[in-house]
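Hey,

Quick one before I head out. I ran the complex with flavin-adenine dinucleotide overnight. Inputs first:
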Amino acid sequence: MLSCTAPVHQPRTLDEAVAQRAMHPFATVLAGGTDVMVYLEGGTLNPPAFIDLWKVNELRGITETAGTTRIGALSTWTDVANHALLPGALKDCARTIGAAQIQNRGTVGGNIVNASPAGDSLPMWLVLDALFEVRSWRGTRMVSAASFWQGYKRTALQADELLIAVHLPPTSGDVRYRKVGTRLAQAISKVVLALRVTTEHGRVGDARVAFGSVGPVPARAPEVEALLTGRPLTESNIDEAIGALAITPIDDVRSTAEYRNDVARRILRAELLAL
Ligand SMILES: Cc1cc2nc3c(=O)[nH]c(=O)nc-3n(C[C@H](O)[C@H](O)[C@H](O)COP(=O)(O)OP(=O)(O)OC[C@H]3O[C@@H](n4cnc5c(N)ncnc54)[C@H](O)[C@@H]3O)c2cc1C
């Protein structure tokens, strides 16, 4: 039973939200609350106040300008799954996050800032070269997905900053997403894979491979990408590239390091062979 009595600030505009973040840097930001409520229920979070963003409609919406897609941080996974502008693999990812209740309430921004190594969308942002729009009373800055997650549940956000939106540059190539959990729905990932590959004249032009749940932060696999680039996607080239994969997963309550190592290689192989 929740017994938190901290005050809840409820901004209605983005300016109000930014001002309240500046005034209450120790408050917990609340978007959909699907992660925060679990921490409150588990007794691991006891903030002095909350800043509830849910009524800040400026943080919603998925738009496109000059080929760049902007996803408001408060967009839910249902919004993502149903949007025509977004890559199919990102929609596939959205449909694996919890079940309908979580997808209707859980937000893109919450998943990103929660920074769980098992956050399903995180590897996708890496392969899509996403930029995160971050705002505080000091101004707006863009942070690349590649530099956003800095350690276990640690991000590049300063105490007075809010994540405002995700920007996706035009996407080229084949984008794939795979999640391995105990079940197809309502399962925390044991391994997540995102992949983006362009091919030119039968050879790989550009390869991006990123894993989640196999380390403290989601990360690309540059050793694999380098061995794929410039070569045809033959079985032997794929196996050579996968042989170089240098992940160091851990044993935990959800899986073993050995299983994660094996499954990461198997799903990467399957997805590359299917391209
Ligand atoms: C039953 C259940 C199943 C789930 N299944 C999955 C799953 O399959 N895959 C998965 O990846 N996750 C899963 N989750 C976790 C969660 O639903 C997602 O991470 C979701 O996207 C979080 O979004 P939210 O808006 O609810 O975040 P919140 O709980 O509101 O916030 C999460 C964190 O982000 C911060 N935050 C949120 N928005 C902002 C912002 N705009 N600026 C700054 N800080 C912000 C909050 O302060 C908090 O620290 C599950 C959770 C539950 C309860």
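The chain has three domains: 8-52, 57-168, 174-273.

Talk tomorrow,
K.
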